[in-house]
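Tokens for Murein biosynthesis integral membrane protein MurJ. Go.
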Amino acid sequence: MANIGRASAFIAAGTLVSRLTGLVRTMVLVTAIGVFAVGDAFNTANGLPNQIYALVSAGLLTAIVVPQVVKAARNADGGSAFISKLFTIGIVGLFAVTVVAMIAVPWLVELYSPEFSPAQKGLATALAYWCVPQLFFYGAFALIGETLNARNVFGPYAWAPVVNNIVSTAGFALIIWLYGGNLTDIADWTPERIALLGGSATLGIAVQFFALLLFWKRAKLRVRPDFHWRGVGLGEVVKMAGWTFLMVLVGTIGGIVQSQVVSEASGALEGNPAGLVMSNAWLVYMVPYSVIVLSIGTPYFTRMSELGSAGETERLRETIDSSIRTLGFFIVLATAVLAAGALPATRIFTNSAAEAAVSAPVLLAYLVNLIPVAILFVIQRMFYILGDTRTPFFFTLLQGMLVVISAYLAAAFLPLELLAAGVALGQSVATIVQLIVATILLRRRFGSLMAGSWLRGYARFGVAGLIAGLAGWGIWQLLGGADSWMLDSKIFGIVGLGIIGVVAGAVYIGVLAIVRAPELSVATDTIKRFRRRSAE
């Protein structure tokens, strides 16, 4: 447990710094290109490598690499032969997919943003040619990073994105310095400016990958190109990968439908939360997910994989319970803070109070599933540890169907100014259903999940979170509410959200202390380790 706590603290520190520098990156980007036609075009172009990477690589890595590398570590060579073959096939596959994606750029832009104007599609296509090469570097970065995680080397994977943010921010700032900010007119974008914008984004991803390579020696594995892909268990990987690919394909189709639905509202109304604005609401949502769920859940996942490989079922059950309750302590507080401070939180990523006002409902809609997603992180990875990627496909298929249906319902019944919020809410409801079904199926497959223990914990967190959220909302109202100084600038938004967070956090911990929540000691130990790591 102590090792998990130290690893979580180190990952959290890196993730927090990454998110803070990412915040600066986004603020500079929004200042340079705005949040409407140009912003949406860049969002589509820069999102393509992420979408394609998720389809061909991300799900595979998450589901397979960590459990399989942990299992291969029991081999006489420590897993070097397995990793060599896995890396070779992974790098070759990534290169091939990147080449195909570059050829298909015009069709991909049309697929994701069919409602864009011809000029906006032209800009998105030009930017995409610069951004799609990120796909290769994203995949290689994740392949190495997940392997390091499986070898209990957690820090570099979390800290390397800081380098990306610094490099890309410098490029975006250079655009402002050379050409001025708020370049929201498509006609402003010459080939040189397009190259600087898209090239800066891709250069950051490439440098991030090479920065991670500097830490490979810590994995203590000898890796070399190996095109002989038989004899070390890759057959099992391929079998699992088939279901994983289909699972991620379902998510990708859902994302395409959402993108198509929301693209209809791109620039249609002044201040409408479409495209980049919806993406920025997602960025706010992803801060607690990354800092809390990934930083705490990643070392737990490695530990659970080790226990599963060793056949220690009872200890694995205890670790499931511990991981879900530890995640819950922090994620409920984060939900309460962001719900109370939705307007200053979204103001950080927008250029005006009016834009924040129409973006806040999108954030609130996403927040509905922040707590369920934290639990689902553990539940879904338990299937991977059991070597089962087939079952996750089916409950993900259910979720994907609900995402698509809800997106079309939002388009049919909601006005444009509420469309993005409706789409986001549909995704949240779909995820809640997915969690319920996944938990029932895992209970049938694995037996007891000690659900009573962590459900009681979440009941305590829920009461404390509700009181804390009301306290934070009270501070927001006391300091002016919708007319508060917190909405005057991005910096004031950060300060205001910090004030709300401090008040809500103090109330949250106070309530849990009064009810003597057993999770409080585990959480405070994690915070102490985080502070020690930050001071080092």
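The chain has one domain: 2-535.
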